[in-house]
């Protein structure tokens, strides 16, 4: 039976967070705009060409190396290494993230309470290594369940099963926060409490009292 966003007041011993557009915002068009200077094409079209190709999911499942993905990227956009070398590609590809300050405050506050914190993300090797170096908030999590290391992507059930095992508690004592409802629905099927996150409605984090003893230290939330 699926739980609802409002049904989260039972004691929570572990909070599982999505990464993109929850902890860190991102803008793929920032990269695409730079690439469009080379292709002369619409940046949104270039972005769709890449992200809708099967290589994107293969890369996020860890079945493709960064260098092979780079070569595929060049092929899809009809570019050559002379147009953009591997190091420049990594810079463009990675420099798309910026912090969600309110959510980062929440995570730091939760860490003080000894609540177990898990990161569950569809991501790839390049993005993850860049984020670890540049956004230290991810390093305070107790465990990371990552698509490229698990060979599974959300909404596949096996990656949620792995997250529950890593949480080390019953599903009903877990809260999962993700901005994509398709993913929170799958988590709910396991009995996990869920909150489908909307950054434009930060007040929901307090209104739902999703962790009874939690009070944010950030007055803007």
From TrEMBL:
Transmembrane segments: none annotated. Pfam families: Hydrolase. InterPro entries: HAD-like_sf, HAD-SF_hydro_IA, HAD_sf, PGP-like_dom2. This is HAD family phosphatase.
